[in-house]
Hints:
The chain is of the alpha/beta class. It has a single domain (12-44, 102-237), classed as Alpha-Beta Barrel (TIM Barrel). It has helices at residues 28-35, 77-81, 102-111, 126-138, 152-161, 177-187, 200-208, 221-230, and strands spanning 12-15, 41-48, 54-56, 115-120, 145-149, 167-171, 190-194, 213-216, 234-237. An eight-stranded parallel β-barrel has the order 1-2-4-5-6-7-8-9, surrounded by five helices. The longest helix has 13 residues, at 126-138. The radius of gyration is 17 Å and the shape is globular.
Amino acid sequence: MDTLHLNAPKPRMIAHRGLSGIEMENTCSAFVAAGNRSYFGIETDVHVTADGQFIIIHDDTTKRVAIDNLRVEDSTFETLRALRLCDKDGKRGRKDLGLPSLQEYVQICKKYEKVSVLELKNPMLPEHIDQIIDAVRAEGWLEHTIFISFALPNMIHVRKVLPSQKAQYLIEGQPDWQEVLGALKEYGLDLDIDQRILTEQMVKDVHGLGKELNVWTVNKLEDAERLTQWGVDYITTNIIE
Length: 241
């Protein structure tokens, strides 16, 4: 199995949860698979564990990716690290499939020279955001990181402590569009938006503010081609490069 290929010129392509169309999402295997291809960046999701450490996983529970069903933020880092994940076919057995640490994810991005697109999952305490920033900085990769989050307070805090950092406000559903534009302008944020609600006029509105626009999750070439024609800046995808 291989990726689908979008003709150039194209936006900056972001591997969603690593190359999750081929490898199990949010694993070191998925990150390395993306690193070995032409992606501009690698996206992932970071949670705070019960003992105040940081683990890479998308959902609030482990049910979808492992047999054990644990609530991530109620579990310790070591408990979560000990889990073996199912492969994409639902089978277990690959010893390399576990939940990565934040440091492992950043180190892979750095090794393969890919921008880290790091989603702060759920509203976080400011001190936890500070610790995540410090961890990325300690790896020497802060200047190559884009922070994203659905929680606007997370993004406001990132902007407060990192005035020039790349940061994208995540949007889905039916938001008040004028409020979204106001937040981008007030806090100096770019936008990361669900392709299902995006229109060409929205692209123009965001660019009119001098902001960039990332679109998720785009897995059909015809959608990627249309969004490219609209002039989006990034496309987040499971399988297209």
